[in-house]
Write a structure and sequence with these properties.
The complex is a heterotrimer. Chain A is an alpha+beta fold. Chain A contains eleven helices and 14 strands. In chain A, strands 1, 2, 3, 4, 5, 6, 7, 8, 9, 10, 11, 12, 13 and 14 form a 14-stranded mixed β-sheet that branches. In chain A, a hairpin with a 2-residue loop joins strand 10 and strand 11. Chain B has two domains: 100 residues, no CATH class; 135 residues, Cytochrome c-like domain (Cytochrome Bc1 Complex, Chain D, domain 2), CATH 1.10.760.10. Helix content of chain B is 51%, strand content 3%. A two-stranded antiparallel sheet of chain B has the order 1-2. The chains are: A alpha+beta, B mainly alpha, C mainly beta. Chains in contact: A-B, A-C.
C-alpha cells in the first residue's frame, strides 16, 4: 500500500507536525519548491510517487532508489538507520558513480537542493518521528603502507569478502550469481578493480564508510559488528579499505584516441600471461550498451576493455583484457538463471532477446575492410553494404578467433579456412578474460583483409558480449571508432636534431663566456695599467 | 630577511615567478570565487603571457642606464668570477641538454589521430521520407506546439526521453548520460547555446528521425551513435520529445521568420 | 590478532550448537526459549490467570506437498558436514499425520489493544549448517532477538521489512551474535543470507504474546488469553494465509484446526519478489513488483 502514496499525503502530514503557523508556512514553501524541482528533474527516473519506478527506471540496472522505503545506500549512519540530511545532500551533489545518477551540485541551487532533501524525506513516514539519525564515528584514514595492504589482504580472506567479490576482487565470487537487491532485481557484485564505478565513491574513506554502514537495499552488509565484537580493530578495517583501494589504479583511466602498437624487434609474446605485457602501456576503451538498432541492450556487463599492442614489423599482437565474472557458459547453473533474470528485468524488449542458456562470451575487434583514403569509414556498428567492416571475432565457445567481413551488426561472414591468417590465445582467471590476437601485418588475401601499414592511424573499434549476462546477437557492448597506430622504427635523422641542438647551444654558451671573460680581463688590465701609471 | 630582492635581476626573477603563478593558478581558481565558470589556460597561452611579461620587464630594466648595469652585474659575475665557476659549468651543460631534449621531442614522429572535419549541423534536405511518407522540412512547424495541450505533450515527451534518450544525452540534457563518455563524437548537449536554440523544430525532427546513419557525408554518419528514431517512435512521439527538449533545457526554437531573416546560417 | 576473541566466540558457539542440537529441531518455538539472557522486567501479566482461557490447535495439510530442492553445499564443506542427510530446501514440511510445520499462528483481531504485557525472554535466530534455525520465528514487538552465527563461514543477515527498518549485518566469524528488536507489528519479515542464496527465514512480529509456530506435527498452543472472540490467522510461506473466528471460553480451552491444501501453493509472500512485466501497446512495458497481499 505504501507504494501508492498520494503526493499530498506526505506533504500534509509533514506540514501538520509543525507547531507554529509561520514555520508551517516556511515548510510548505520548502516542500513546494522541493516538489517542483523533483517533478522536473527527478521524477523521470524515481517516479512522481517516489517509488523508484519512473519511465526511465526499467532501462536501468541498478534501478533508481525507491524513496518510500527510506532506505539509502550511501550513509554515515548504521545499517537500518535513516540517513542524515547531509548524507542525502551528498548523493544529490556528487551522484552515484557507475549508475545513471549524475551529480546536481552545479545544476541546482543550494536552496533547491535543500528543498529537495526535505521533499525526498516526505515520501516516507519513517522520517516523521524518531530521533535525528546520528552519524557513526569514522576517524580519519591512517596512512597506507605495505604492511596495511598485507593486513588488509589477510582480512579480505579472513572475513570472506571473496564470497561475492572473488579472490581478485572482480565480482566473480561463488555467491555472485544469486545476488538480488531488496526489490528482487539482479545485483552485480562490485568489481573492486574499478573504483571509479563504486556506488558510494572510490576513495579509501568511501570504501571504509561502506564497510561500516553497508549499502542498505543491496546484498552488501555492514561489517561494524566485527569492531563491536572486538574481533578486528578499527585500524584493521582501515587496512582492508586500503587493500580494496589498492586493487584499482591510482587514478581513474582516461580515454586516448590512438592506441599505439610499440615496435618490439625481439620475439613477440605468444601468450596472454607473458610477463612482458606488464611493461606494455594499456589503453582504456569504455564500452556502452548497444542502444542504436533493435533489439537494444541497456545492461552491458563489459563496460570497458584494456588494449595493449606490439608489433615486430612482420606481425601485430593485440592483447585485449576485461572483467567478466564467468567463462560463459558457466558450469554453475545459477549463472544461467542470473542471465535469464537480467533478460527478464531489462526494458525495452524491442524485438525480444535472442539469448539462450549456453551463450558464450565474445569479443570483436573491428577494422574497415580497406583503409579509407578520405575521412569515410564503415559505420562503427560493423559497417554497411557500401563500406564493409573487417572483423577479428573471438568466442569462448570454440576458444579461437576468426576473420570475418560484415555489412552491419551481426551479419559477419567467416572467411574461408584457407584465408584465415589470424590466431588467438585466451585465458580466463579470477574474473578476467585476456585474449591475445596475432596476425601478419600483410596477408596474401589482399582483397578481403585490411593490410596494416606502419605509422598510419588505422580505425579500430570493439564489441563485447557476456553470455552469462544475457547477451547475444545484437545485444552487447560497443565502442565507436578509435585508431590503432603501428610505431615505426625511429629514423636516424631524429637523433641528429638533439645532437645538433646540443652542440650549437653549448658552442654559443662557451662563446658568450669566453667573450665576457676576455672583456673582463682587458678591463682589469686597463684598470691595472691605469693604477700602475 | 628581506622578501623583496633589491637588485634588478632578482626583481626580474621574482616578477616572472609571480606572473607565472598568477597565470597558472589565478585563471582557473579565481573566477569560481565569484561564481564564474573557468578553465585552466592552455600551455601556449601561458607561454605567450610569460613572453609579454618578460618583454615588459626588460623594457623597464633597460630604460635606465644605471639599472641596466645593475641588472647585468649578477649575470656578468656568473660568466666571469672564479668562485662562481660551478654555476657557470652547470649552466653550460644543463641549458644545451634542455634544448637538445626539446629538439628531440619536436623531431620525433608522433602518431596522432587524423583531424576530424565534421559538420555538427549540416544543411538539411528540403524534405524527407518518414516510414514511406514524405514530409517537407522547409517551413514545417511542430504540429503539437499550438494545440493547447503543451503540458500533456511535455509529459509524454519526458516519458519517451527517459526511456530512450537519457542513457546518452543525460538527465541534465548535457550529453553526459552514462553512455556519453563511451561515444565519440560525444552526444549533443542541448544546454549549449549553439545547439537546439539555433535550430528550427523541423530540423531537430529530421535529425531525430534519421539519426546518425541519416547524416550527409560531411556529418560523418559512420561515427554517430544516434539511432534512426523512425524505427522506434511515431511522428507524434518525436514531436512530443522535441517539446520536452526545449522546455526542459529552457530554450526557444528558431522560427522560420528568423531563418528567412538570416539566410545562410544553420537552419 | 584474532586469537582471543576468536576462541571465546568458538566456545560460545559450540555451546549454542549443543543447545540447538539438543532441541532436536523440535517445535518452532524451541529456539526462543534457550536464550536465557534477558531477564524480564517485573510486570504483572494483565490477564487474570483464574479466568483466562487457551487455544490448542492443529494445522493439517491435504494433497501432495511441494517438493523440496537439493541444496548444493559443496562450496561450504563446514556447513555440509553438519547435515547427516543431504540438505534440502523445504518450503513445506509435512509430518506423518499430515501436520504442517512452520506455520505462524497469531491473534490478528479482537484483542484489547490497551493490554500491556511483561517483557519476554530473548528469542534466538541461529545460523547452523548454512540454514536458519528456526525457520520461522515468533516475536513480540520490542522483544529481543539474538541473531547468532554458529557456522565458521561468512553469513549476512539481511532483513527486508516494510513496517520496520530493515538491516543487513555481516557475521564473518563463528560465534558472533547481535541483539535486535522490532518496534512495529509486522507479519512477516523476510530474512535472507545473500552469501548462501538458499538461506531464508521469516520473523512474525505481533504486538502481543499470542503467537506460535507449529511444530513438525502441526500443533500449536496459545495460553492465558482473556476470554472473548478473536480472529486467528495462520500464515505459511508457500500456502498463504487462512483466518478463522475463535471464541475463547472463560477458564477453558478451545480447539481449532486449520487446513491448507496444495491448491493454495504460490500464495506466499515472496522472499525475492517475482517481477511481473506487463506489456502495453507499441512495446511500452512496465515492471511491477509483486507486493504482499
Amino acid at each position: 500500500m505504501t507504494r501508492t502514496i498520494l503526493l499530498a499525503v506526505p506533504v500534509l502530514a509533514l506540514a501538520s507536525l509543525s507547531t507554529t503557523a509561520a514555520s508551517a508556512d516556511a515548510q510548505d514553501q520548502e516542500l513546494s519548491l522541493g516538489k517542483d524541482v523533483y517533478d522536473r528533474w527527478c521524477a523521470g527516473c524515481h517516479g512522481v510517487d517516489g517509488a523508484g519506478a519512473g519511465p526511465g527506471a526499467a532501462t536501468m540496472l541498478p534501478r533508481p532508489r525507491d524513496f518510500t522505503r527510506a532506505q539509502y545506500q550511501v550513509r554515515t549512519t548504521g545499517t537500518g538507520e535513516l540517513p542524515t540530511d547531509a548524507d542525502i545532500m551528498h548523493v544529490i551533489d556528487v551522484g552515484m558513480p557507475g549508475t545513471a545518477m549524475p551529480g546536481w551540485e552545479d545544476a541546482l541551487s543550494r536552496d533547491e537542493r535543500e528543498a529537495l532533501v526535505a521533499y525526498l524525506k516526505s515520501f516516507s513516514r519513517f522520517f516523521e518521528s524518531g530521533p535525528e539519525p546520528t552519524p557513526l564515528e569514522f576517524g580519519s584514514a591512517p596512512s597506507s603502507s605495505e604492511a596495511t595492504i598485507t593486513e588488509g589482504a589477510r582480512l579480505y580472506q579472513e572475513i570472506e569478502c571473496w564470497q561475492c567479490h572473488g579472490q581478485a576482487g572482480r565480482g566473480d565470487g561463488s555467491a555472485a550469481a544469486t545476488l538480488d537487491d531488496d526489490l528482487g532485481f539482479p545485483n552485480y557484485a562490485a568489481d573492486l578493480t574499478r573504483n571509479w564505478l563504486f556506488n558510494g565513491g572510490g576513495a579509501v574513506e568511501d570504501i571504509y564508510r561502506v564497510l561500516r554502514t553497508g549499502l542498505d537495499g543491496t546484498p552488501m552488509p555492514t561489517f561494524s559488528d566485527l569492531i563491536e565484537s572486538d574481533i578486528v580493530t578499527d585500524d584493521q578495517l582501515w587496512s582492508l579499505a586500503h587493500y580494496v583501494r589498492s586493487l584499482s589504479p591510482a587514478r581513474a583511466p582516461a580515454v586516448r584516441e590512438v592506441i599505439t602498437a610499440t615496435l618490439d624487434e625481439s620475439e613477440l609474446p605468444s601468450t596472454p600471461d607473458d610477463e612482458r605485457w606488464a611493461s606494455v602501456q594499456p589503453f582504456y576503451v569504455p564500452l556502452a550498451g548497444q542502444v542504436i538498432v533493435k533489439p537494444r541492450w541497456f545492461s552491458p556487463r563489459v563496460t570497458n576493455i584494456w588494449v595493449r599492442a606490439l608489433h615486430d614489423g612482420e606481425d601485430v599482437v593485440l592483447l585485449v583484457s576485461w572483467t567478466d565474472p564467468t567463462q560463459s557458459p558457466s558450469s554453475d547453473p545459477d549463472w544461467a538463471s542470473f542471465a535469464q533474470r537480467v533478460v527478464d528485468t531489462m526494458e525495452p524488449k524491442d524485438e525480444g532477446s535472442t539469448w539462450e542458456p549456453g551463450a558464450p562470451d565474445r569479443l570483436v575487434v573491428q577494422f574497415p575492410q580497406t583503409l579509407p583514403s578520405g575521412l569515410e569509414r564503415p559505420h562503427f556498428l560493423q559497417g554497411d553494404a557500401r563500406r564493409p567492416a573487417y572483423l577479428w571475432s573471438w568466442s569462448s565457445e570454440e576458444d579461437r578467433a576468426v576473420e570475418m567481413v560484415a555489412e552491419g551488426l551481426a551479419t559477419g561472414q567467416q572467411q574461408p579456412d584457407e584465408n584465415q591468417q589470424l590466431s588467438a590465445v585466451s585465458t580466463w582467471s579470477e574474473g578476467e578474460w585476456r585474449v591475445l590476437f596475432r596476425r601478419p601485418l600483410m596477408t596474401p588475401d589482399i582483397a578481403a583483409d585490411l593490410q596494416l601499414p606502419l605509422a598510419t592511424a588505422v580505425p579500430i573499434a570493439f564489441q563485447a558480449w557476456d553470455g552469462d549476462n544475457g547477451e547475444a546477437g545484437k545485444q552487447n557492448a560497443v565502442s565507436t571508432w578509435y585508431f590503432l597506430a603501428l610505431e615505426e622504427a625511429t629514423p636516424a635523422t631524429v637523433f641528429m636534431a638533439p645532437v645538433a641542438a646540443f652542440v650549437l647551444t653549448a658552442a654559443f654558451g662557451l662563446g658568450v663566456v669566453a667573450r665576457a671573460q676576455r672583456r673582463y680581463t682587458e678591463a682589469e688590465e686597463r684598470a691595472g695599467q691605469a693604477g700602475g701609471a | 630577511m628581506r622578501l623583496w630582492p633589491s637588485e634588478p635581476f632578482g626583481q626580474t626573477v621574482a616578477i616572472l615567478a609571480i606572473a607565472y603563478l598568477l597565470i597558472e593558478l589565478g585563471i582557473p581558481y579565481i573566477p569560481p570565487l565569484f561564481g564564474l565558470a573557468s578553465a585552466p589556460a592552455p600551455d601556449s597561452v601561458v607561454f605567450q603571457y610569460m613572453l609579454t611579461v618578460l618583454m615588459g620587464v626588460l623594457i623597464w630594466v633597460s630604460d635606465n642606464e644605471e639599472r641596466w648595469r645593475a641588472f647585468k652585474r649578477p649575470i656578468q659575475r656568473v660568466l666571469v668570477e672564479e668562485k662562481r665557476k660551478p654555476i657557470r659549468v652547470a649552466l653550460l651543460v644543463l641549458v644545451p641538454v634542455l634544448v637538445a631534449f626539446i629538439a628531440f621531442d619536436q623531431a620525433r614522429p608522433s602518431l596522432s589521430a587524423p583531424p576530424s572535419f565534421r559538420a555538427i549541423h549540416p544543411a538539411p534536405p528540403g524534405s524527407m521520407t518518414f516510414r514511406d511518407r514524405t514530409i517537407p522540412i522547409t517551413g514545417l512547424e511542430n504540429p503539437l506546439r499550438h494545440e493547447g495541450r503543451l503540458e500533456a505533450h511535455y509529459e509524454e515527451g519526458k516519458r519517451i526521453y527517459y526511456r530512450n534518450c537519457l542513457v546518452c544525452h543525460g538527465d541534465l540534457l548535457d550529453g553526459q548520460g552514462p553512455y556519453g563518455p563511451a561515444f565519440n563524437p560525444a552526444p549533443l548537449s542541448f544546454q549549449d547555446v549553439g545547439t537546439i536554440q539555433q535550430l528550427t523544430e523541423s530540423y531537430v525532427f529530421w535529425r531525430i528521425a534519421k539519426g546518425g546513419a541519416g547524416l550527409p557525408n560531411e556529418g560523418g554518419p559512420w561515427n554517430s551513435a544516434m539511432p534512426a528514431w523512425e524505427e522506434f517512435l511515431t511522428e507524434d512521439e518525436i514531436w512530443t520529445v522535441i517539446i520536452f527538449l526545449y522546455e526542459q533545457a529552457d530554450k526557444t526554437p528558431r522560427t522560420w521568420e528568423e531563418v528567412a531573416g538570416s539566410e545562410g546560417g544553420p537552419q | 590478532m584474532f586469537k582471543l576473541p576468536y576462541l571465546r566466540n568458538l566456545v560460545t558457539s559450540s555451546l549454542a550448537t549443543a543447545v540447538v542440537m539438543g532441541c532436536g529441531g523440535g517445535d518452532g518455538d524451541g529456539g526462543a526459549e534457550d536464550a536465557g539472557e534477558a531477564t524480564a522486567a517485573v510486570m504483572e501479566h494483565p490477564v487474570d490467570a483464574a479466568t483466562a482461557g487457551s487455544i490448542t490447535g492443529l494445522v493439517i495439510f491435504t494433497g501432495t506437498p511441494s517438493e523440496g530442492d537439493m541444496i548444493d553445499m559443496s562450496e561450504e564443506p563446514a556447513c555440509a558436514e553438519v547435515h547427516a542427510t543431504p540438505p534440502m530446501r523445504m518450503p513445506a514440511v509435512v509430518g506423518a499425520d499430515g501436520g504442517l510445520a512452520n506455520v505462524f499462528v497469531h491473534l490478528s483481531e479482537g484483542l484489547d489493544p490497551s493490554l500491556q504485557f511483561p517483557a519476554e525472554e530473548a528469542a534466538v535466530l541461529d545460523q547452523l549448517g548454512c540454514e536458519y534455525v528456526p525457520h520461522v520465528v515468533a516475536l513480540s514487538t520490542g522483544q529481543q532477538l539474538t541473531v547468532r552465527n554458529s557456522d565458521p563461514v561468512l553469513h549476512n543477515v539481511n532483513t527486508t521489512p516494510t513496517e520496520n527498518r530493515g538491516f543487513n549485518r555481516s557475521q564473518p566469524q563463528v560465534g558472533m551474535e547481535f541483539q535486535t528488536s522490532f518496534p512495529t507489528a509486522e507479519v512477516m519479515i523476510p530474512v535472507r543470507c545473500d552469501v548462501h542464496g538458499w538461506m531464508e527465514s521469516y520473523i512474525g512480529v505481533t504486538a502481543h504474546p499470542y503467537h506460535a509456530v507449529t511444530g513438525e506435527d502441526g500443533s500449536f498452543a496459545l495460553e492465558r488469553l482473556p476470554p472473548g472472540t478473536y480472529t486467528l490467522e495462520a500464515w505459511h510461506e508457500l500456502y498463504g494465509t487462512v483466518t478463522q473466528s475463535v471464541v475463547v471460553p472463560e477458564s477453558g480451552d478451545v480447539e481449532v484446526m486449520f487446513e491448507f491444501d496444495e491448491s493454495m501453493a504460490g500464495r506466499h509472500v515472496p522472499l525475492r519478489p517475482t517481477l511481473i512485466i506487463s506489456h502495453e501497446r507499441d512495446g511500452r512495458a512496465t515492471a511491477v513488483r509483486a507486493t504482499q497481499q
